[in-house]
Predict the structure.
Amino acid sequence: MFLNYIKITLRNLYKEKMYAAINIAGLSIGIACCIILGLFLRSELTYDRYNLKHKRIFEIESEFNTNGKISYLSTSSRVLAPLLARDYPEIESYVRFKLIGRTLVRYEEESFYSTRVALADDTVFDIFTYDIIYGDPKTALSDPHSMAISESFAKKIFGDINPIGKVIATDSDLNKITLVFADLPENSFRRYDALLSINRLQDDEDQFKDLLKLPFSTTYLLMPEGYKAESFQGKVESIYSKYAGESMETEGVSVRGWLQPIAEIHQNPEVPVFTAVAIFILLVACINYINLATARSMKRDREVGMRKVLGATRPQLIAQFLGESIFLTMIALLIGLVIVEAVTAFSPVNDLLGRQELMNFYDEPNLLLWMMCFGLVVGLISGIYPAFYLSSVQPLSTLTGTTRSGKHSFRMRQSLMLIQFIISMAVIISMILMVLQMQYVSNKPLGFKKENKAEIRLQGAELIGKYPIIKNELLKDSRILDVSGSRTGTVAAVPSRSYIEDNDGVIGEPQVLNFKEVKEDFIKTMGMEIVRGRDFSSDLSTNIGNSALVTESLVKKMGWEEPLGKRIENDLGMFKVIGVVKDFHYRSLHEQMEPLVIINVQIDSLNLSSLLKLRPTEYLVAHISNKDISGALKYIENVFKNINPKSLFEYEFLEDYLDGRYRRESRLMKLIGIFAGICILISCLGLFGLAALDTEQRTKEIGVRKVLGSSTFQIIVMLSRGILLIVLAASVIASLIAYYIIDEWLTNFAYHIGINPIVFVLSVAIAIAVAFGTVALQSFKTANENPVKALRYE
């Protein structure tokens, strides 16, 4: 019987090639999209679960309250974990990670920068799961100058040889390689290339009081099996109270801490979006199958009636039709897998999803089994309604020539088509509004000129000390218009606890203000505007380390009528306000513009503490003429190489850096655009098939109308009228849904567009034009034929 069903299925598919092609195309595209999104979602929802002890590992998270200003941090003091382990024996172990970021790595003649270097405790390989290739994990990071590296990091430097015992230089330190571990999965927070021993930081207990106030590292605790995070409540507070309570109370600082299971740390806001998109695309593809299967039911009524007369039962017929649906879906699954392989290999979809590899049957053979189960489920979902509908025909009516009215199936098709276009239209409208918001973000004035600004990192105390020489050499070239620098990056600032002293010498309550340390000519180089007072000047020696510029928003916040002469004090010194700068966006447009203090401080990097001396960094910004940018960059590179041959020259344009702040939104917008197009494509495929069946069933009616004088255009309008009404109704509902979605999405931006009604009108017009064009394309041939031929149609 099974083979007989296969033969019937193949015979029907051969007889109706267009129907089969449309169904397979729609299902294969829908399945391919679902597989891609499903693999991405699987990766997102299983973050860090590869660790064998993940149920027992918790991250310490903190809330710092400084005079009412609250900051939530995933970092904590580096002495907190040792103190907790000392006072609370239920803590089995702990590990601290401190990302030291962009690090210069040298081995013999090879040198490069790595951004994934971290300090870590020697317990890291016991708490977290690593696949060890070379070395002993128990002693790998015991020595203060030991180093564990990833497999890809090792191959980059040493090739395929065993690097254990080799010595690598990082910044000013020499490190002996003691362990090589396999690269961690992409869905891991701690994908470091190199781990240095945190034992190189020697802390005296006399320093604990001060170190407790400094969030330094990400800290993880290994707790007993079944430990509840709620049981940890109050323990962090007790440590701070015990070791630094008096000084923190004086400074108006309080800290609260809690535990977060590592499997729950990663929260990607895109997950609900992509889950919905995957469901919607699959739903649109399944609706195509249901609509086409029920629309062609009249063609199969006689077949069903004859099979019932010959003894076929309804369950057998249901099994046959479900088998056809599953068979079609399995073909679509195979084609879908080919599409996935092609798309991931030859398109930027992996980059858009932020993944190097989505599907690998060699490493995960069970993946194919899951895919087959997925295909089976899709086949059942698609085929369940058509199977019950087709098998319900009465044999007597088919043999006597009496056909079903089809009103129920027609209403069902209309409802399903409405759902299809609601989904497609909502996605399209959302995508258009997202594009408009990103254009707004890109074009909004920021309060400074971002064009042609090259930001160059000055890495190391030696290179930082040569900044005046570098600046003088650069300005000798006419293509370089201005040069300045900053300690925190061109558009970044650091919060600091500060005191305000007015002109009468009265000091107010302490508060947290954002500070930015800059070099001379920063305001000029960045094209900012001073609206009151003056800029820093090297001609006035009192400016250096003693003067400050403030933004308009700070003046407004403090309620100053006369800001000039006010004094601001923090850990770096006392600063007199000499000018007011027009507000500028030094943060992304996700956040409100905050008050800022700009100071001109000269710090001797050679005399920094041992911790800061490990990674002294400053930034030089060069304003380049747009006449010969590449030539100017080449000149800058030569200047750097001549002044400090050991340094690696790297730069980034400020425009690119600022665009990177909205990379997630840009990726989401592009992906939504792609899937909007796919939704429309699948919907139009189904619409084309329905139009073909409708036109075929109404061939004689078309002939009669032609004889009675109807034009081709009138017939096309008659055939498409019902569909256009459905599209119009879908557009109204989709507009309401899209408005709610985008209104919610725009709350992520402190500065955003208004939702323009014209977008909805334009989207409706596009949808109607596409739907009408699809129907017209199919029905034009029949509507334009000789009516005699149509009247002879059987």
